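It would be a great kindness if you could assist me with a short task in structural biology. The matter concerns a single protein, recorded as an amino acid sequence and a row of backbone structure tokens. The record follows directly beneath this note:
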Amino acid sequence: MKAPRWLTTPLFAFCLSRLLIFGAGLIGDTMLQTEEGHWLAAPGSPFLSMWAKWDSQSYVDIATNGYWFRPGQLSNVAFFPVYPMLMRVTAPLVGGSVVLAGFILSNLAFLGALIFLYLLTEMELDTASAKRTVFYLALFPTSFFFSSVYTESTFLLLSLATMYFARRHMWMQAALIGMLSAATRNLGVLIWALVMWEWLRAQGWSLKTFHYKESWSNLWNGFRQHWFDLFIIAIIPLGLFAYMYFLKINFERPLAFIEAQSAWGRENIGPLAVILKNVKVLMNNTLTKSWLTNFWNTSTLLIFLALVPFIWIRIGEGYAIYVLIMLLVPTASATGSIIRYVITAFPAFMLLGWWGRRESVDRILVTGFAVLLGMFVTVFVNWIFVA
């Protein structure tokens, strides 16, 4: 019996891209010398240690020792609980190593995310676009974070699964998974708005038709007949509220995860001010590691912002607004990790999948992404900050 395409295509994209990043990681770790003194995640396994850098230390710390908060310091309460909790639960099943547990969870979650991405893109666009979309995401220059001890793959899986079930009007499944998404990342609660938008669309209401009386009449009828669906959807933010309640009980600071951000030197000055500041730095400074980091993050932000109107036109206003907020909220204080954050903005990759129907565009995206992915992996495994 032939395996379905929704499984074989994501699986092939997963295997091909993971072979690329694992190969590039091993070569980079062997050929280039890393500065001494860095945290070693798994002393007995150089391979596992390659995929646990920077923020990974906080996830390992939470999974091992739990949460702690000290005002003004780099406290681990800034990181939401679902992923480290899964690491802690899985660790006894893999010999007690939370690093191995995180690595396995990240890769399995990424494969699951590619499957849901394929299914959702096929639903919104077509099969050919779905095939290209999973490859573009799997080969994106920072997609190695999906295999690292980071929360990106778990968050993407939960977000995509939530939206897939919402599109099928399976509101209970969407709400339960969405609640987990809201407890996985600080912007996870945004999926609530996207599910609500889908509910409005299911009732025949949209921004394109809101000025028609019939649109509001349909919405009122939908509310009378399907009000309980709204009640179910309303449980999604409980994921965020549960974490806030935990912080209140343990540290008397329900917003400690926001307070902790200040210790990273983040100053909320607004997206426009941050972008102008970064452009000025790029124009006035010479080529250094920090200049390159600024260049990649700022250019990625501007490119993805430019995609938003096209997402609106091709896939829908709900998806476009979702991507816009995911970009602007972190940019209000800094762009230092935008090139990592964008890999969970799945509607942007769906749009690229549609554009890739042109062979020249497809060739440029695949080749360019693959080359940059290999380069960024080499940098990352040698403790050079990427995002």
